[in-house]
């Protein structure tokens, strides 16, 4: 589409709708949406980087015949009636896995889903952000200036509400266009299977030792330093939860790593570190020092290991040394998946998850065949369409390698 054909989308068609902030307003909105027709566009705004957790601070919905509805989920925290009114209705989200958890907390759980971002990936669009997709497919530009705003702000400014309403303004039309493209490309059944898999996926298990994701932790070489990181991360998480602040606003990761590297012995030593000179670090200085002291004085037996026991295959860069045959299988299977993804115009990770490819290459079935490879892929979470496309060529590639090594 040429630049001249792109039209800026500046205002919602019906103007900025009032925000539902009471049970009465929400009930009226539920009635309006229930009386509409077709799928419902849904979006949520969070306060990532500002507040603790990933709760929603605004929910936007749009349906033909009903217009756009904005709901403040702080006073209207129970959307079960809305969920009941829309039971069986397809809900359209962009990058659904980001918003589904916070919507579920409110009681809004789609029974049917269309994910416009995932549809774009399956169709081979090189960039699948909402603004880019709306521009590429529909010819409108969306203003994205408030995507990283603090949506816990009250009252919400009018220009933020305009931006939020515009995020669902064309989502139904985008879904319609992408659904047609998927159908014409023979990929609609694949997409529907992917959408169903998203909805049926179990909740994510809490990450083991989440403190190990502290940015910069790779700089630490001692278990004692890791212990300090663990104690400071745990302290920060408690304070952040109590104050309802993003942990990074309470104390940045860089400060935790700096303290773990320097192991200050007095409160003054800790306060003298550059990362602890700001107002927020000083506010809880005593708590940070207690955490450092606890990490410094733990008995050796209580110190964390350098890394968690491995689950699954080792890192791929070590395969050539540990199992050369597995390394060859990985190279061959990756090449197969890359070629198939190119043939079907989609990213390799959407054709088959890289982890499934690694696990298959590391631990192939004893007797390699299309059926046995398909069973392994299915057990690893691959969908039927993915198994249908990949099991046979993957089996052939591994059989060729096995035959070659035996000759």
From TrEMBL:
<keyword id="KW-0378">Hydrolase</keyword>
<dbReference type="InterPro" id="IPR002121">
    <property type="entry name" value="HRDC_dom"/>
</dbReference>
<dbReference type="Pfam" id="PF18305">
    <property type="entry name" value="DNA_pol_A_exoN"/>
</dbReference>
<dbReference type="InterPro" id="IPR012337">
    <property type="entry name" value="RNaseH-like_sf"/>
</dbReference>
<dbReference type="InterPro" id="IPR041605">
    <property type="entry name" value="Exo_C"/>
</dbReference>
<dbReference type="GO" id="GO:0008408">
    <property type="term" value="F:3'-5' exonuclease activity"/>
</dbReference>
<dbReference type="GO" id="GO:0003676">
    <property type="term" value="F:nucleic acid binding"/>
</dbReference>
<dbReference type="InterPro" id="IPR010997">
    <property type="entry name" value="HRDC-like_sf"/>
</dbReference>
<keyword id="KW-0540">Nuclease</keyword>
<protein>
    <submittedName>
        <fullName>3'-5' exonuclease</fullName>
    </submittedName>
</protein>
<dbReference type="InterPro" id="IPR051086">
    <property type="entry name" value="RNase_D-like"/>
</dbReference>
<dbReference type="Pfam" id="PF01612">
    <property type="entry name" value="DNA_pol_A_exo1"/>
</dbReference>
<dbReference type="GO" id="GO:0006139">
    <property type="term" value="P:nucleobase-containing compound metabolic process"/>
</dbReference>
<keyword id="KW-0269">Exonuclease</keyword>
<dbReference type="Pfam" id="PF00570">
    <property type="entry name" value="HRDC"/>
</dbReference>
<feature type="domain" description="HRDC">
    <location>
        <begin position="222"/>
        <end position="302"/>
    </location>
</feature>
<dbReference type="InterPro" id="IPR002562">
    <property type="entry name" value="3'-5'_exonuclease_dom"/>
</dbReference>
<dbReference type="InterPro" id="IPR036397">
    <property type="entry name" value="RNaseH_sf"/>
</dbReference>
<dbReference type="GO" id="GO:0000166">
    <property type="term" value="F:nucleotide binding"/>
</dbReference>
<dbReference type="InterPro" id="IPR044876">
    <property type="entry name" value="HRDC_dom_sf"/>
</dbReference>
